[in-house]
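Blinded run. Sample ID left blank on purpose so nobody reads anything into the name before looking at the predicted structure. Input follows.
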Amino acid sequence: MTASFTIAIDGPAAAGKGTISKAVAAALDLAHLDTGLLYRAVGVKVLEGMPAIAAAQSLTPEDLQRGDLRGPEAAQAASKVAVIAEVRAALVDFQRAFARRAGGAVLDGRDIGTVICPYAEVKLFVTASAEVRAQRRFLELSAKGEAETLEEVLADVKARDERDMNRSEAPLKPAEDAVVIDTSDLAIEEAVARALQEVATRR
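Blinded prediction complete.
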C-alpha cells in the first residue's frame, strides 16, 4: 500500500461507520481517525462556555482523549457546531494532514469523501434506515443505563439527520464516486467484509 493511500468512510449517526472504520484500519494496519470526535470535542468546549470558533482553533490531540465525548450531549453539541463554517475550516488542516500520513489512513465522518479528502483512493458511504439506527443507539444507551425512550432516540436521530443533510457547509451526502453500503440488514461482520472487498479492488 502506498504512503498516500486514504480510505474515506462517511455516513449518518449509528449507521456503523465507526465500527467498520476501526475494523478496516485494524485489518489493513492503517491509522484511524474518527473525525466526529473533533466536533464532539469542540462541542463539549462550547458546553463549558468557550465560543465555538475559539474552541475549534485551540483544539489539541489531548482534547480527543476526554472521557465525555461519547455521550448524547456531546453528540448534539457536535451537530450544532458542525454547521459553523469557521469551525469546519479550522479543523480541515488537522484532518487532511492525518489522511496523508505515512503508511495510509482511514478517516470516518460526514464530509471526508466530499470535502476533506476528495482525492481518497477509496470512498465508502455507510448508511441504514433511521429506525434501525435509532434501535442501535437505544440499545447502546440502555446498556449504559442512560434513560431515553426509543421514541426520543428516533427523534434525536431524525433531527440530527436533518441538520447534517441540510446544512449549507459540507452537507452529509455520498461523494459521487462513493460506494454505498446499507447496513440495515447486514451483520457487522458482513458489512466489514463488504468494505474490505471494496478496498481490495482499489489497492
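Unblinding after everyone has recorded impressions. The two ends are 7 Å apart (CA to CA).
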